[in-house]
């Protein structure tokens, strides 16, 4: 699914990623953990094509295609999805219209017929109900006046509708209470299967209790310094990053 080799990237000529090697096979969920400033969000931005991040070395392929050579919209059409750490507000843009436009763009790229308003609303309401979202959230402007938890649920609703092949979740658990956290995790788990993979960026092991990743990777100073199973996240929760930082010094 995703193959990263020697990936290095910088912003404003400041190196952030310093040689990332990572493979996420089909059907697997991998977690990225690490202290603030280690490059976790940068990795997500680079993979999704954010233009102010410059790739200085290495490669990233997505289903055998050179991901770094694709425009952001082409990456989305190919099945890449990024859930933001801080979803932006879009005043004047109706949430339902935004979601339907995005979904139909993806459907066109797949050679599928577009959904009309009635078909879309039936689908969107069913997915929103599963995420415990009230119907009026579809009528409001995108993320305007939404609480932090509502914004994150709206991101997961987008993911549920777009059905990506690879989802990158950038601290989707940030600011969520226990109930909202489980709902968001359930939304991700509902997509799990042989044609769906996810890269989950998180600070907290509690999200991983619900997701149970196949692998956990620790990112420190722009490099992956340790990988392991779900038990690695539990170890980090107990001991923190002090030992790893000392080893890297």
From TrEMBL:
<dbReference type="InterPro" id="IPR003593">
    <property type="entry name" value="AAA+_ATPase"/>
</dbReference>
<dbReference type="GO" id="GO:0005524">
    <property type="term" value="F:ATP binding"/>
</dbReference>
<dbReference type="InterPro" id="IPR027417">
    <property type="entry name" value="P-loop_NTPase"/>
</dbReference>
<dbReference type="InterPro" id="IPR003439">
    <property type="entry name" value="ABC_transporter-like_ATP-bd"/>
</dbReference>
<dbReference type="InterPro" id="IPR017871">
    <property type="entry name" value="ABC_transporter-like_CS"/>
</dbReference>
<keyword id="KW-0547">Nucleotide-binding</keyword>
<protein>
    <submittedName>
        <fullName>Fe-S cluster assembly ATPase SufC</fullName>
    </submittedName>
</protein>
<dbReference type="Pfam" id="PF00005">
    <property type="entry name" value="ABC_tran"/>
</dbReference>
<keyword id="KW-0067">ATP-binding</keyword>
<feature type="domain" description="ABC transporter">
    <location>
        <begin position="2"/>
        <end position="246"/>
    </location>
</feature>
<dbReference type="GO" id="GO:0016887">
    <property type="term" value="F:ATP hydrolysis activity"/>
</dbReference>
<comment type="similarity">
    <text>Belongs to the ABC transporter superfamily. Ycf16 family.</text>
</comment>
<dbReference type="InterPro" id="IPR010230">
    <property type="entry name" value="FeS-cluster_ATPase_SufC"/>
</dbReference>
